[in-house]
Amino acid sequence: MAIRLSERVRRITPSSTLAMDARAKQMQREGQDVVFFGVGEPDFDTPEFIKDEAVAALRAGMTKYAPAAGLADLREAVCQYLYKEYGLSYRPKNIVITCGAKHALYNVFQVILEPGDEVILPVPYWVSYSEQIKLAGGVVVPVMTTAANGFRMQPEDFAAAITPRTRAVVINSPNNPTGAVYSRAELLAIAEIAVRHDLVIVSDEIYDHLIYDGLAPTSIPTLGPEVAARTILINGVSKTYAMTGWRIGYAAGDEKVIAAMADLQSHSSNATTFCQKAAIKALLGPQEAVEKMRAEFARRRDLMVRLVRETPGLDCLTPQGAFYVFVDVGRLIGRTVAGETVRDDEHLAEIFLEKAKVAVVPGAGFGMPNYIRLSYATSCERIEEGFRRIKALLAGG
Ligand SMILES: Cc1ncc(COP(=O)(O)O)c(C=O)c1O
Fold first, then answer.
1. % of the chain with per-residue pLDDT over 70
2. Ligand 1 pocket, mutate which of 128, 130, 175 (most atoms under 8 A from CB)
């Protein structure tokens, strides 16, 4: 018997980043030496003192259900953390703990969107936003950005996309896939428009600590009480503390929205109890490991940007945050690479993987064809090796 899938899931486009990663990992299992530029997670291990805390929590019997909204002491720790980092004054009732930031985003769209509500999404965007918005019955309204404006949505483009059905806007700074970081003034201009049109701002700040060139991140709720009241801040421990597999994220914002997210979780699922204990340690414990990882990412970024620019046919801006370089491959489309005429960025990514054993993610999945995303969450040696292969492939014609 063929079980029919729902219309809802049939409309989902599978994550292109995960698809490419799965294919590359399969090649690796077959014994091939693949350079991974596709990954979206730090290659560093979780700092030892955080792991110790999880082990201690397990030994202390923290093996039972946690409250749907999260452990009270982690919700309190998130408040302390957001105060320490940004001077934000949240109470535990404004915080919900989720199974990673991705889950927090999923829940936000579920609780704020009615069918047909429009959500403005600057392009390129992280692959999951568009599918999560659709799953909640929402309609994605893409707003293009360009390399010329640093891949940052311009306030006039944002304003022009607003209709009576617009309910929310998603801001992700530092950005995946471009590494773009909005300035405080740019965010203020966008936030003022959101206030004027009574929109919810979903602010994904998951890369806030992976920021370079002496820049400081701006947390959107710091832009003023009117902005804070309509912002749902999303963050978590995945990227900052190299804890992607622990699945701990959170949302901070309006009490009613947060309570609705917790209610939703009470009927689906919520974060692992002993991982929540470890997350408290991550947020409030020593922060030296964060700076060490950040400094290493900065070094790798500089290397990768130099190698991209040295490679004929490739070009990029210098990303100011996250751990990705968004590479313009427009000049390679229509050209012959490894004996094949490159049709588009997806085809090029396939050629890179099959012929050079370098895994990259095509830009099309992020809503912007003619680009590929390269992650520098890998060692300088592997970055050098990957570019040796790419250069040789492109030089071969
Ligand atoms: C922009 C952005 N938001 C959220 C997430 C998901 O974070 P988490 O692993 O905590 O679910 C990612 C992960 O790749 C991301 O790039």
1. 99
2. 128
